Each structure stands twice: as structure tokens, then as C-alpha cells.
């Protein structure tokens, strides 16, 4: 969950959206409206189907509408009816003119997404179900010929990562767009910072640190009669098969920024972590803290840290170390070429949709699938190393690991959960 913006100013996501520049967003929308390209079918209309109607799916759909003219929301899917109902109510409150959803275009159950994807006029999918479902839903959406905005992370295991890469390659062949919810890639301060890093303003990149340390998050209590599967899907933050653990679900943002700075993926990963505070059953089988070292092809090492524990120091940022200075994700460089971002910037949660829609309309669709799949794998490797106590190589994780956490059968019933990992005991798969 993106409960915090990536700066260290303590803004929540909601606060950040409230304070985004309306003028900047309007400028973006005007630019998109002026593009000369056409969507499939000879129309500039963007017709959205939402797969995963929780808070993030609802928010992403609203952001898409606010990003560009000519955007409609025509269908909703979630396994659970109450989530569909709450999503629809929120959409009608926030973007009423864009809501074209009918009772016939609302779908539930584990296979309801297939019915949504069968609606021919839909050309833009927001997929925001729990991350464990992302490879399945992306594959189906691309095979159905839809452009996709998919939330991060995009998988919870190496098998899922490979599936996402394959789907992204198919999307490229079909001329379909894919943008991931790593909004820093569409945020002006990060774009300007990284240009300076890549232009050599801090010299050679030789190290770094990245952090996502914050308090605890929401919990969904299990009610009488709620099956294993339903509870895990509703309380999805706390099960490795649904969320990937918080190093994957949340810290992937910071890891992706570091990869961006290096223009490379790490070749080796070694991590540790544990479950010291969140030990009750409602916290499933995930850890509450991680510390991971990533080694990059040039021999540089980056220390990563993430924690979800209330009452402790918070820190959400990235620091890139160069031979002639340091770069900070909040938009600052120290050293001989010192610089600080001070401009007003548009809401990156809106910009990422504007960028995707503009690319679709221009006939040059963006495709971020492989990039976010690789950054997701980095986070997965950190979790796997911490869970097992083993050091991992990129080549092994990408090409050899057989870890597949997704249930063999999706149905509302029993679904035994793997025990909490014990480093040195839990096997590496």
C-alpha cells in the first residue's frame, strides 16, 4: 500500500492528492487532448474496466479520469460484492460524469474478471487486486487485447515475474500499453534528479541506501464463518502469497529508484529480517522488518531497510552515493554540482495515467512491464534471502527458482498457509 508519498515530509497519500497542483494537472490533460493518435476502433475514448475494486483500484480509476479528457469507467470486478458496491459508490461521489457502470457490467467471484475482459469496448484495464493475482490478471488482459495500468508489485514469486515478462512481451507485439504504479517514474523531481545522475553530476554511482520504515497498517479481522481464502484475500497485506510481504508490496518503490540510478539490476542479494512485533494470527505469515544488501554489476553495494512497526522512527527515502556527490530522492544533490528541486509539480498518481493515455492515443504505447517485473524480482530476492538465510544470485532467481506461491485452486474454502519462515531452516525453492 502506498500510504505515504516517497518524500520524507510525512504526507499521507490522501494529503498529497489534496495538495496536488490543479493547474498542472489541467495542463497535462490539455496536452493529452491535443494528441493526434487514436485508440483501437478509431476513437480517442478511453473506457476503463477495473479489476480489483478495493481502495487502490478505486483510487487509480479516479486518477485515470482526472488525468485526461474522454475517459469513462464502464465495468467493475472484485471477488466480493461489497467491494464492488463501495467502489461504485465512491466513483459516483468523486467522478460522477465518468461513471457508465451498470448492474450488467459489475462482476464478482474468482472468475468474474473474464466476463469483464470480454466486453469489447473496454480498452484500458486498471488491475489492482492483491499482488499475487497480478500475473494472472495481466496475462488475461493482454490476451484480450487491452491496455493495462497495473499496480505494483506485479508478482510475489519468480514464477509470477516470468509470467509478467512474457505478458509484457506479448503486449509489445500487440501494440498495447502497460504502465506500472511506480509513480516516482512519472514524478518531476525524480525525473530531473535521475537525468542529473545519469549525466554524471554526482560522478560514478558507487553505492546507496533506501528505506521504507513506517508504522503498522490496517488489519481485517476474521469474522465467524469467513473461510481461509476469503480472509486471506481481504486481509491480503499479511500473507506472502497475496502481498509478497511488505518488502515486495511497499519497499519495491525505493528499490526501483535505486535500480533506475544504476541503470542495472543487482547481481547478488543477501538479506535478513524477522517477525518480532506483529506475531498475532491476524498478521498472517509475513515479517515486520528486513535489512538487505544489493550488489550491482560494478561492485557497488546498496543497503536497503524496511519496517512496519508503530512507535519507531519513520524514514522513507532513497540516497544515491557517487564519487563526486550524493543524490536524494526527495529532489536534491550535494557536491560540486549541488541542486535542489523547488518547482511545483503535478500529482504523479495522475501523471502516470496521463502518460499512458497520451502514449496510447499517439500510437506509441508505453510498456513498463519488464522494468517493474525486474524491480519486483529484486524485492522478492530480498525476501527469499531473509526467509532462508541464503545469499542469492540474480541469474538463479530469474532463471532457476521454482517458487510459485499461488494456490492451485481458487475457491472460497480451506487454504492452509505456509508457516512463518525461519532463516537457516526454511528451504530455498
Task: Outline the secondary-structure elements.
Layout: H1 13-19, H2 22-33, E1 46-51, H3 55-67, E2 71-77, H4 81-94, E3 106-107, H5 112-117, E4 124-127, H6 134-143, E5 147-150, H7 158-174, E6 178-180, H8 188-198, E7 205-214, H9 228-234, H10 240-243, H11 246-249, H12 252-262, E8 268-274, E9 289-295, E10 301-308, E11 315-322, E12 325-328, E13 332-334, E14 339-340, H13 348-361, H14 369-388, E15 392-393, H15 394-399
Parallel strand pairs: 1-2, 1-4, 2-3, 4-5, 5-6, 7-10
Antiparallel strand pairs: 7-11, 8-9, 8-15, 9-10, 11-12, 12-13, 13-14
Describe the protein:
There is one protein chain. The protein has 429 residues and is an alpha/beta fold. The chain folds into two domains: 13-184 and 351-367, 3-Layer(aba) Sandwich (Rossmann fold); 188-341 and 375-399, Dihydrodipicolinate Reductase, domain 2, CATH 3.30.360.10. It is built from 15 helices and 15 strands. The strands form two sheets. A nine-stranded mixed sheet has the order 14-13-12-11-7-10-9-8-15. A six-stranded parallel sheet has the order 3-2-1-4-5-6, sandwiched between helices. The two termini are 27 Å apart. The model is unreliable at 1-38 (pLDDT under 50).
Amino acid at each position: 500500500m502506498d500510504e505515504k508519498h516517497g518524500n520524507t515530509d510525512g504526507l499521507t497519500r490522501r494529503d498529497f492528492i489534496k495538495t496536488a497542483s490543479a493547474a498542472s494537472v489541467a495542463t497535462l490533460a490539455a496536452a493529452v487532448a491535443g494528441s493526434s493518435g487514436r485508440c483501437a476502433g478509431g476513437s480517442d475514448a478511453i473506457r476503463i474496466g477495473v479489476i480489483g475494486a478495493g481502495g487502490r483500484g478505486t483510487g487509480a480509476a479516479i486518477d485515470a479520469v482526472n488525468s485526461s479528457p474522454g475517459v469513462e469507467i464502464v465495468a467493475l470486478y472484485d471477488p466480493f460484492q461489497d467491494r464492488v458496491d463501495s467502489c461504485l459508490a465512491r466513483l459516483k461521489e468523486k467522478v460522477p460524469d465518468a461513471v457508465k457502470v451498470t448492474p450488467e457490467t459489475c462482476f464478482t467471484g474468482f472468475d468474474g474478471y473474464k466476463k469483464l475482459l470480454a466486453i469489447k469496448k473496454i480498452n484500458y484495464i486498471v488491475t489492482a487486486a492483491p499482488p499475487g493475482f497480478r500475473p494472472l490478471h495481466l496475462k488475461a488482459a493482454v490476451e484480450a487485447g487491452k491496455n493495462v495500468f497495473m499496480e505494483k508489485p506485479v508478482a510475489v514469486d519468480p514464477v509470477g515475474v516470468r509470467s509478467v515478462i512474457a505478458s509484457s512481451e506479448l503486449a509489445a507485439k500487440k501494440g498495447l500499453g502497460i504502465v506500472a504504479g511506480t509513480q516516482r517514474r512519472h514524478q518531476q523531481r525524480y525525473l530531473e534528479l535521475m537525468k542529473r545522475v545519469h549525466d554524471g553530476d554526482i560522478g560514478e554511482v558507487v553505492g546507496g541506501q533506501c528505506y521504507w520504515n513506517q508504522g503498522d497498517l490496517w488489519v481485517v479481522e476474521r469474522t465467524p464463518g469467513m473461510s481461509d481464502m476469503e480472509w486471506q484475500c481481504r486481509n491480503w497485506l499479511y500473507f506472502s502469497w497475496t502481498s509478497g510481504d511488505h518488502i515486495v508490496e511497499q519497499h519495491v518503490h525505493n528499490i526501483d529508484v535505486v535500480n533506475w540510478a544504476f541503470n542495472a539490476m543487482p547481481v547478488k542479494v543477501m538479506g535478513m529480517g524477522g517477525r518480532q512485533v506483529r506475531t498475532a494470527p491476524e498478521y498472517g505469515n509475513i515479517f515486520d522488518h528486513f535489512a538487505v544488501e544489493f550488489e550491482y554489476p560494478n561492485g557497488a553495494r546498496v543497503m536497503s531497510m524496511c519496517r512496519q512497526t508503530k512507535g519507531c522512527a519513520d524514514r522513507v527515502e532513497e540516497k544515491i552515493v557517487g564519487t563526486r556527490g550524493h543524490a536524494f530522492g526527495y529532489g536534491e544533490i550535494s557536491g560540486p554540482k549541488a541542486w535542489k528541486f523547488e518547482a511545483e509539480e503535478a500529482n504523479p498518481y495522475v501523471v502516470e495515467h496521463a502518460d499512458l493515455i497520451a502514449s496510447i492515443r499517439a500510437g506509441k504505447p508505453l510498456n513498463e512491464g519488464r522494468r517493474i517485473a525486474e524491480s519486483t524480482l529484486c524485492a522478492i530476492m530480498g525476501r527469499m534471502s531473509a526467509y532462508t538465510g541464503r545469499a542469492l544470485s540474480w541469474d538463479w532467481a530469474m532463471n532457476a527458482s521454482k517458487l510459485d506461491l499461488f494456490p492451485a485452486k481458487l475457491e472460497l474454502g480451506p487454504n492452509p498457509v505456509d508457516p512463518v519462515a525461519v532463516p537457516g531452516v526454511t528451504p530455498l525453492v
